[in-house]
Each structure stands twice: as C-alpha cells, then as structure tokens.
Q: What sequence folds into this?
C-alpha cells in the first residue's frame, strides 16, 4: 500500500520572550529578547492526481471573473454607483401570472392531491408538449424529443458528457465561453497555445463584421461538432435563413453535428429563423439548446430545454437521443417541478404576452444604448435581435477598455477577449437593467467617451 | 383515494418508460437486456425494423456510454411497472421500488417557497442569477445545522440541485484517469457515472462487474463493512451511510478505519450522507465526525428524503479546504470551477425552501415526516420478520433489505410484481453483491404500506 502524501512545511516564528533565568534572583524588569522558533508542520496531500484537463483552464470562468473585478472596484470605491451592463443578468420582475402559477404549485406540494415527488428526468410531458407547440410548430419536433433542464449552461456540459473526449469541436470566435471551457474539461481541446490563446484541437470560426458574422464554410476544416449560437452571444447577430441553410448543408456534407444555442431566439424582431429546425434537413444534423433565462427572467429560477431529434444518429446508426436520455437519467434528476410549473405558465397566452412586454422593455434599453454609442461615432453591432451590443474599439485591448470604463464611469461591461481571441478590440454591453440605469449609463458613456 | 394518487404518481414515470418503449428505433441497437445469472433474456417491447437508408452522421458514438449494459436502474424499474399496468390496467399497484417520497411537504417550508415565488414579481424581491455555490444564508444555515462543531464552514459548502447531479459533477472534477472503489451493493449512480467518465473498462459478463472498478463486498457476514485489508488501493472511494440499498449505518469504529485507510492510501472518500437524519442510534451522521476526515473526504447530502424535495431539487456537497490533490492543489478550487462552468446554481425558490427547512420549525417538521417514514419501515421489517425472512436495514434508513437465498433478484421482483402488484427493486440492480436480495423502500402513504404488507403476508405465508 502506498503511503498518503505528506508535505513538510517549516514555519518560522519570531517571539519575544524573557531570557532564560539562572539560579540567581531575577530582575523583574529584564528586557525581552527575540527568540526564533522553527516549527515543522505536516499537511496531508492525497495521492489523487489533479485532472489534467482542469489544469488547462487558464483562469476562472469569465463571468465570476467579471464579478471579482466588480467587487474589487467597489472595495476601492465604496461610494461608487455601479451600473451593471456586464453579466447578462435579467433585472425586471417576472410577470404575476407566472409567479402565481409557481406559488400555487408550491402550495399544492403541501397537499395530498398536489404533492409531487420525483418527476420524469426528461421533464413533465405537459411542459414538453407546450414547448413543442409554442416553438416548434410545423417543424416536426415531437414532445418526446424535448428534454427539460435546469438551464442551457448545464445542458451544454451534459451534451459534452454525451459526446465524450474523442470528438473534435468548432466554435464561433467570439462565443459564449461555456462551449470552449466544457470542451477543455471533457478532454477534447488539447493544449492551450499561449501565443494565440487558442486550444490546439478546437477550430475557431472567425465571426466578425467583415464576414457578416458568419464563417466561410468552404474554409472550415471538418470537426465532429459545431457549436453555433444565434442570436449570438456576444455579437448579437441573428443568422439569416440563407446562412443557416449553408450551415446545415455543410453539416450534412461532412456528417457533423450542430449544437445550436437558441437561448435568445425570442429577441428576434426581423424575421430571422428562431430555430435551426426551420431549416429542412436540420433534424438529421442538429441539437438545439434553449432557455427560459432571458426569455422569462428565469436566470435564478433555472429552466431550459434541449431538443434531440430522433433522426440524429451516430456513425453506427445509433440514435443520439437514446444516449442523451441515458445521461439525463444518470447525471441529472429533472428540473425543479416548481420551475416547470412556471415554465408552463410562461407558455400560456397571458404569460407569453406578458413576457413579450418584458423583452420589448429590454430591447428599448438596447436601442437607447445603441443610439448612444453610435452618436459617439463608435461602430456598434447587435442590439437589434438580441439584448447584447458589440462595440468596436479599434486598436485597443478589450480588458483595458473594460477597466477604463469601469474606473471612469462605474459601468461594468464584458471585455470581448473573454469570448475568444477574435473578441479583442470589442466590448459587450448587455441591455438588461432598469430604464433609469440604462439612461444614466448612456449619459455617463457620452460624457466619458 | 390514496391508492389512486399513488397510481397517478406512478404515471409520471410513463414518459421515461414510454421513451424506452420505442416505436421507431432500430431494434438491432436497442438493448434492454439486464445482466442476469441465468441465460434468460428480458424481452423488450416490439419495435418495427429501421429503414436501412436513414441518414447517419460521421460522429462516433461515445464508447464509454456504449459500455453501459442497460438503462439506468430506476427508469428500468419504472418501465416494468408501466408495462405491468398496461397488462393489468385495473391493478392497484403499490410502489415500494424507487425511493419516491409521498407525503406532503410541511406548510412552513412551502409557504417560504410561495413567498419567494411572489417576491420574484416585485422590484425589491426580484433576483436573477444567484451565486453558483448557493445563497449565503442557506450555506451558513447548512454549516451551523449539520456541521456546527465539526470545523466545516459556510465556504466549504456548495448548494446543488441534488446528490445525483453532484456525483456526476464530482466525477467531472476527477476526470477519466482516476480509479474508484464502490461498496457492493451500492447506489448505481456511482458506477454508472464512472463508466460514463471513462474511468472503467468493459463490463465483464461472467462476474457482472466493470473492469477497473474495485467492488468492496458488503454483506451481513462482514457487518456490511468491507474487509479493508482485501481492498486494493483506488484514488476514489464511494461510501454511502446509512447505506442505499442495504440500510446499514457505518459505526464510528468502522468509519475511523475507513478514514485511516484513505489516509494511508492517499485516497479521497466521497461520502454519501443522503439518509443521515434517518439514523436512530449513535452512529455518525457525518464523515467529518471522524478526526482527520477533512483531509480525505468529500460529503454529499440532499433534502430529497428529509423534506420530500425529490421533485423540488436541492442538495449540497462539502469539500473541505484541507482536501488536496497530490500536487497540493485544493480540490475545492477545481470543484468550484466545475460548479461555475457546468452548473448555474440551484433554483432560488428551492433554496428559499431549504432555508425554511433549517429553521427550528422546519427542522421539527422534517423530523415528523422522517418519523412517519421510519414507522413505515418498522411495519415492513416486522412483516418480513414474521414471515421468516432474513431482513436487514430498516433501523437507520428508509430501506429494507430482504434476503431471498439462492434466488435471482429480477425473478423475485417479477414474481412480487405479478402476484401482488407491488413494485420493489431487485438487489442485482445495485451490483453483483445485491443478487439474492430485494430492496423494499418505506416511502408511501400508511394505508398503502399496510396493504402492501397484507399482500406480502398472503404471498409468502
């Protein structure tokens, strides 16, 4: 048997003490002298090696890092009136009709008739049907292809567990950091190249104004999986029907799987596709992840869903949905039944209308911020189909711009570099906030910039 | 009324079982056979043949998931219950299989959750993203309630949506290059998550074990505690006490030996304490009651079986600061990174409920519900004892482990289901060491438990 690891630490203490006395009567006013103590202390380390994949992550996850900067800033400037346009955290209350449904469900849990224990890990069938009916009408997506979850971030990791370490992935650059980070954690990503800031085995598909935020598919090497987010976080770009057709064709021609993140679909205003399944053939190549977070202010309530079509198959013909179901049944135990009751209310006629009003509110915020930046001569992208603005600061480091804005205006944003190397020179501004704060932010930015 | 309620609760599982009763899947690849000692194959529900021209991607199936032999245990049990109901639509099925809580949640807890729900509709009360590790007040309450004088602090505790989810998140922290040991029998999520993570080899049909997992046999003969001198060193040791499925609580002496074993071997114990509040005697409720445990153990726990939160979803995991990887890196830091990246916090409404659970009134209310289920357990134990069975567990956990010497546990499960319309859980579902036993769970309305016991007496007299 191997012995447990031990580390020996030597700590040095300097204490002031009376000098040691001899036999003679001591003078009570004896001067104190410094005495050095060396203390050895053992600390137990296990013999369990750290997961090498986690070592490859260079820093904390992006959004807690932003929080950390915010906290530090507040510690230095306790009177600062911070305006948070950083982490995309919803701020407006959830409409009554939805919270009432949740409260009613909760009260039911105290009754014999209304008590519910374990639910189906895939979610309540009523909710799955409602999601199918509301978002996938006429797209041939059935309720049993929908898996209710506690949110898109969690689903992305469950999908990575499903796919395993031996697949290759491509991401948009810039993109929501959970795709890359989860890829690293599962062991797909290879080593980080310090010079480029890219992981060796991940393909980064540059998406910028120069290519209308859509990669040239003819130049992308084949990977097993493509993560694609539309409307995009952080750029705000909603992919067009034509672009998505290209993507689906590319996927089909190469036998790859698209993981399509549609968390902001309900923010689309210009008729761009809201679901990848609007594109014919997508059911054979795509998984779609979505969320109630930004749609319903459920960032804290926790509810989302993933669509895995029955027609999506591995190279050996095995349906992907079966393995995803296995993951969901083994690594998860269903979304909270309270959140699910809320979700159902969100999809009622009244609930949905009330939520549209909240979305309109945030998009009015976005308009104010877009106008503000444009009036300063800055190039602003997004803000039209998503609650994010992607502002270009040519030639500047995005973390420096982030720090400057925070210092000078007490506004928290997100540096574009946090979303990938191509995010350098950009700042993401989120449109979530109470109107007065948005107006105040706009004033401060105009003044500073 | 209560039997019907029990029935309608059982229908909740129909969606997972309906899923596993496919209508359009390739029957060649559909696998519902379960590892059995006898060569009988469990018949799956008929599926039509797949068209050969169906489009396939070029993405290889994850070989780790392919190693799993059948569905996760509890949906399998649910599937059989649903199939049984199809055959006997008028049967009054009683579910003592899946550890499914049935009693309503005490008012003091639900009123806190209702209040939080309403507050989300107000400007002052609305909250968006919470800290991924959980709300501060709840973490503090967990620390003081369960770990008061054990030196575990608020920042050592991470709130989750349940122990099962935490187990997988811990596996993600550990990665594929660690070895693990489990009790045999044990809660299936430890082995299954290990397979999914790629820590194991293939399933060895002759011994019904996965290669590369150390199975620590726990039997009545060894007091349901493994003989550690026969256990090979592994990086991780999963240990559940009070145990699911056997109901056995580990003694202070046993846990002291386990902690020493982990220390000597530089292993990490993942201690599952989901049933700790069911302990009736002086056995330890937390691994951290054992000196030195903070340097070798993680503890996971859950509100599911205390507060009936099986559907509400709330639990927690303790990762002490003193727990270090071999290079000295704090395990808690990596766990935090996983929690921030692969998770986004437990539902704020559930957390409000959790806080209410830990108020003096809430604790008292939870003890009442636990007491109710313990009374159920007593009734079940007495029944099987009176029928001459060797019965284990039931004193310190809501599970009764009944020995059927020489019999195949899926056969016994099927026989009980067919002849009494009672759902139990076959012991082999928990590992080869579970063969020859049946787990009977004690969650149920009192009338159902009494009725079930009447039917057991009728069958086995």
A:
């Amino acid at each position: 048997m191997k012995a447990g690891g031990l580390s020996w630490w030597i700590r040095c203490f300097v204490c002031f003490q009376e000098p040691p006395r001899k036999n003679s009567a001591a003078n009570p006013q004896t001067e104190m002298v410094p005495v050095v103590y060396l203390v050895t202390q053992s600390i137990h380390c296990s013999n369990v090696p750290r997961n090498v994949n986690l070592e490859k992550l260079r820093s904390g996850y992006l959004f807690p890092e932003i929080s950390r900067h915010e906290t530090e800033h507040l510690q230095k400037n306790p009177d600062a009136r911070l305006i948070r346009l950083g982490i995309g955290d919803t701020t407006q209350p959830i409409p009554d009709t939805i919270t009432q449904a949740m409260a009613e469900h909760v009260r039911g849990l105290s009754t014999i008739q209304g008590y519910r224990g374990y639910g189906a890990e895939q979610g309540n069938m009523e909710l799955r049907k409602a999601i199918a009916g509301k978002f996938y009408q006429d797209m041939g997506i059935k309720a049993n292809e929908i898996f209710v979850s506690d949110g898109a971030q969690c689903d992305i990791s469950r999908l990575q567990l499903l796919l395993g370490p031996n697949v290759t992935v491509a991401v948009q650059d810039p993109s929501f950091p959970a795709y890359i980070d989860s890829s690293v954690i599962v062991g797909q990503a290879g080593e980080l190249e310090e010079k480029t800031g890219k992981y060796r085995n991940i393909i980064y598909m540059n998406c910028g104004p120069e290519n209308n935020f859509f990669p040239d598919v003819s130049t992308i090497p084949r990977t097993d999986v493509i993560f694609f987010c539309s409307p995009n976080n952080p750029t705000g770009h909603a992919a067009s029907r034509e672009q998505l057709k290209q993507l689906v064709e590319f996927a089909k021609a190469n036998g790859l799987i698209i993981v399509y993140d549609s968390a902001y679909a309900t923010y689309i205003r210009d008729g761009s596709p809201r679901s990848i399944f609007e594109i014919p053939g997508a059911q054979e190549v795509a998984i779609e992840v979505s969320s109630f977070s930004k749609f319903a202010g459920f960032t804290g309530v926790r509810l989302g869903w993933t669509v895995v079509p029955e027609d999506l198959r591995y190279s050996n013909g095995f349906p992907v949905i079966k393995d995803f179901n296995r993951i969901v049944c083994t690594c998860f135990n269903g979304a909270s039944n309270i959140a699910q009751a809320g979700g159902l209310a969100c999809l009622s006629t009244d609930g949905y209308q009330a939520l549209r009003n909240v979305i309109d509110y945030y998009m009015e915020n976005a308009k104010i911020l877009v106008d503000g930046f444009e009036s300063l001569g800055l190039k602003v992208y997004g803000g039209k189909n998503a609650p994010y603005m992607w502002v270009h600061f040519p030639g500047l480091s995005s973390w420096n711009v982030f720090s400057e804005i925070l210092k000078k205006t007490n506004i928290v944003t997100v540096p574009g570099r946090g979303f990938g190397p191509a995010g350098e020179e950009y700042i993401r501004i989120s449109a979530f906030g109470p109107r007065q704060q948005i107006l105040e932010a706009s004033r401060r930015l105009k003044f500073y910039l | 009324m209560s039997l019907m309620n029990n029935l309608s609760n059982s229908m909740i599982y129909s969606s997972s079982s309906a899923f596993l009763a496919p209508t359009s899947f390739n029957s060649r690849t559909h696998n519902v056979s379960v590892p059995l000692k006898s060569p009988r194959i469990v018949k799956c529900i008929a599926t039509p043949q797949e068209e050969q021209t169906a489009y396939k991607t070029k993405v290889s199936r994850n070989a780790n998931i392919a190693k799993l032999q059948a569905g996760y245990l509890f949906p399998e049990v649910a599937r059989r219950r649903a199939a049984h109901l199809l055959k006997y639509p008028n049967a009054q099925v009683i579910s003592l299989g899946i550890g499914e809580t049935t009693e309503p949640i005490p008012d003091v807890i639900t009123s806190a959750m209702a209040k939080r729900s309403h507050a989300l509709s107000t400007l002052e009360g609305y909250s968006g993203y919470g800290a991924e590790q959980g709300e501060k007040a709840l973490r503090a309450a967990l620390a003081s309630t369960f770990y008061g004088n054990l030196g575990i602090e608020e920042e050592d505790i991470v709130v989750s949506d349940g122990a099962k989810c935490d187990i997988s998140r811990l596996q993600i922290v550990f990665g594929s290059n660690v070895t693990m040991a489990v009790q045999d029998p044990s809660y299936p999520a430890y082995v299954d998550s290990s397979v999914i993570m790629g820590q194991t080899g293939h399933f060895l049909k002759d011994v019904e074990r996965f290669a590369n997992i150390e199975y620590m046999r726990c039997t009545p003969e060894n007091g349901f505690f493994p003989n550690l001198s026969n256990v090979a060193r592994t990086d991780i040791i999963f240990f559940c006490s009070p145990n699911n499925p056997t109901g056995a609580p580990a003694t202070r002496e046993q846990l002291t030996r386990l902690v020493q074993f982990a220390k000597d071997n530089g292993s990490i114990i993942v201690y599952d304490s989901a049933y700790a509040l069911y302990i009736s005697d002086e056995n330890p409720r937390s691994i951290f009651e054992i000196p030195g445990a903070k340097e070798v153990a993680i503890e996971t726990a859950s509100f599911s079986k205390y507060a009936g939160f099986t559907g509400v979803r709330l639990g927690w995991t303790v990762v002490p600061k003193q727990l270090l990887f071999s290079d000295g890196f704090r395990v808690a830091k990596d766990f935090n990174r996983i929690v921030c990246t692969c998770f986004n916090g437990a539902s704020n409404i559930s957390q409000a409920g959790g806080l209410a659970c830990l108020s003096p009134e809430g604790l008292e209310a939870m003890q009442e519900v636990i007491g109710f289920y313990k009374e159920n357990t007593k009734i079940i134990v007495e029944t099987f004892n009176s029928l001459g069975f060797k019965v284990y567990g039931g004193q310190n956990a809501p599970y009764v482990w009944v020995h059927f010497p020489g019999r195949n546990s899926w056969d016994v499960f099927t026989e009980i289901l067919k002849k009494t319309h009672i759902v139990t859980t076959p012991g082999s579902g928990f590992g080869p060491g579970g063969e020859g036993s049946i787990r009977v769970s004690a969650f149920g309305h009192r009338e159902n438990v009494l009725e079930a016991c009447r039917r057991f007496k009728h069958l086995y007299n």
About this structure: Chain A has three domains: 11-49, 62-93+351-448, 96-348. The mean pLDDT of chain A is 93. The radius of gyration of chain A is 27 Å. Chain A touches chain B through 121 residues (CB under 8 Å).
